[in-house]
Amino acid sequence: SAAAWPEDVVAELQDCEAHVRLTVLRESLDKVYRRVASVVESSGEKMKSRLSTCFDAEQYRWARCVLNSRQFEGSWCEATSSKGVLVPPLELFNHSCVLPAGDCLRRGCID
């Protein structure tokens, strides 16, 4: 997600609509991060020390973008309206090593 792009890359978007959208997205993610960080802060010294090396705004933003990019509505299955998440190791099944890029894996697309 563009929300995890480095600042020098984001700066190239200055003066365009994509920069405005990205700024709004980042502000939203930062707001949620502050809420999560306040919970971590109030969780006690043991939890804070465990998370101190791996929990900051930049890492949270990246992790949240990865999570959001793998969520989907129930439209993938007509029998459900629930949400799902593509688990990273299982995401490997979303790809094929034998098909050239651009080929379709939908039913009826392959002879």
What features would you describe in this structure?
This protein is mainly alpha-helical and 111 residues long. The protein contains five helices and two strands. The chain has a two-stranded antiparallel sheet with strand order 1-2.
Tell me how many strands there are.
2
Shape: extended
Gyration radius (Cα, Å) is: 19 Å
Q: In what range is the share of β-strand residues?
A: under 5%
What characterizes the major β-sheet?
2 strands, antiparallel
Classify the helix fraction into a percent range.
Answer: 40-55%
Q: What is the arithmetic mean of pLDDT?
A: 77
Give the N-to-C terminal Cα separation.
34 Å
SSE order, one letter for each helix or strand: HHHHEEH
Strands, helices and their partners?
Blueprint: H1 7-11, H2 17-41, H3 45-51, H4 57-69, E1 71-72, E2 84-85, H5 88-91
Antiparallel strand pairs: 1-2
Helix pairs in contact: 2-4
Which terms would index this structure?
mainly alpha, 2 strands, 111 residues, two-stranded antiparallel sheet
Please summarize what this structure is.
The protein has 111 residues and is mainly alpha-helical. It has helices spanning 7-11, 17-41, 45-51, 57-69, 88-91; strands spanning 71-72, 84-85.
